[in-house]
Design a protein that fits this description.
The chain has 149 residues and is of the alpha+beta class. The chain is built from 2 helices and 9 strands; from the N terminus they run αβββββββββα. The longest helix has 38 residues. The chain is elongated.
């Protein structure tokens, strides 16, 4: 085997591991949304009307300049070998200024040493939760949502 072949094989193995890493995080995001919705007691497949669109009460996407945007998980911003994402929980179809009918919480998901870690950056404070059991995170998020209204 030539030195080039060795280098190429190393590169291809690294590339495959990288693809696997990001796919695992995307799968974890889908599971997180589904599990948090179930923790809240939202029936699977439940939808609410927001404007002219029907969406699940809990959705994940991106927050840019204080605006939430639904984006495919593979389009989320990559940061520190993880994804920055936002979770939006909507409560009803009416649009109120106060209290607002939805809350958005910015989060970060990574997989530093094989286990999924989800972090919430709240000002100078960072709350970090390591899987596979995220029940502590879910309760923390519920308390954070309550503080928004």
């Amino acid at each position: 085997m030539s030195k080039y072949d060795e280098l190429r094989d190393g590169y291809l193995a690294s590339k495959a591991a990288d693809v696997e890493h990001w796919e695992a995080l995307q799968h974890a995001l889908r599971e997180f949304r589904k599990d948090f919705s179930a923790h809240l007691g939202i029936p699977e497949g439940a939808r609410i009307r927001v404007g002219s669109t029907e969406i699940p009460p809990v959705v994940l996407g991106s927050e840019v300049d204080n605006f939430f945007k639904l984006v495919p998980y593979n389009s989320l911003k990559k940061f520190n070998y993880g994804y920055e994402f936002a979770m939006r929980v909507s409560f009803d179809e009416e649009v109120y200024e106060s209290p607002c009918n939805f809350a958005v919480i910015p989060l970060h998901i990574s997989k530093p040493e094989g286990e999924i870690v989800i972090k919430h950056f709240a000002g100078f404070d960072t709350k970090s939760f390591q899987g596979p059991d995220f029940s502590g995170l879910y309760e923390y998020l519920i308390e954070t949502l309550k503080a928004n209204y």
